[in-house]
Amino acid sequence: MNAGATDEQTWRHVDSYIDRTLGLGDPVLDAALKASDAAGLPRIAVSASQGEFLSLLARLVGARRILEIGTLGGYSTICLARALPQDGRLVTLEFDPRHAEVARGNIAAAGLADRVEVRVGPALDSLPLLQQERSAPFDLVFIDADKVNSGNYVRWALELGRPGTLIIVDNVVRDGHLADVGSEQPEIRGSQEAVELIAAEPRLRGTVLQTVGGKGYDGFALALVGE
Ligand code: SAH
Ligand code: DHB
Ligand code: MG
Fold this sequence. Notes:
Layout: H1 8-22, H2 27-38, H3 48-60, E1 65-69, H4 75-81, E2 89-94, H5 97-109, E3 116-120, H6 123-132, E4 140-143, H7 150-160, E5 166-169, H8 186-200, E6 204-213, E7 216-225
Parallel strand pairs: 1-2, 1-4, 2-3, 4-5
Antiparallel strand pairs: 5-7, 6-7
Helix pairs in contact: 2-5, 3-4, 6-7, 7-8
The protein binds S-adenosyl-L-homocysteine (SAH), 3,4-dihydroxybenzoic acid and magnesium ion (MG).
């Protein structure tokens, strides 16, 4: 593993070493992927090691209330919800009712149905409703839906968070296209807007972490809400 050590085959090889050695991608998560495949969902969930990273971040901030935007089959949902205390709560927003149905099954099979609520609809419709409920602020927000709106979702995370809330945005690096200044591709603009907002918004401090692995070359934006 030296020559060509940057190719995707190597990244996949190392991901599988990490998963095997750390015991990630356990039977419950594997079953969730299997059920998602069987239902014809796209294979775009976070990887096992990324899921554990999300879970670790939720534990680090002591999250009791988590908001997720973009559920798919509930893989990342399960990873995040596992970090919650018994009386914790996770609300996850999903546009596609078919995805939501598969996710509900996977979440129930993971024994997390008591902590997780899947809400169906375009997130930009669900978010104002969530705000109207005036429930306690979210401690962590994971943004992983339509990339064109990633910047808008960071803005919503600020609305629904509090000082100390951690905001995580998936898929901002997109094979390096994040750095395509002047790009007219809406998904890239969305990712750039999320990062630009972290810079422009005085209440946010954060960074972008580039990642490689079985899912290719991508990265997370991470931002902490301050006063
Ligand atoms: N977080 C998941 C992957 C999410 S994939 C995981 O890692 O396991 C992105 C999901 O966002 C898809 O299920 C898609 O249907 C959903 N989505 C796309 N546009 C949306 C919107 N406007 N509102 C809510 N969900 C949306
Ligand atoms: C895609 C979406 C994701 O959330 C992801 O992590 C990877 C790929 C996609 O739409 O292709
Ligand atoms: Mg993603």
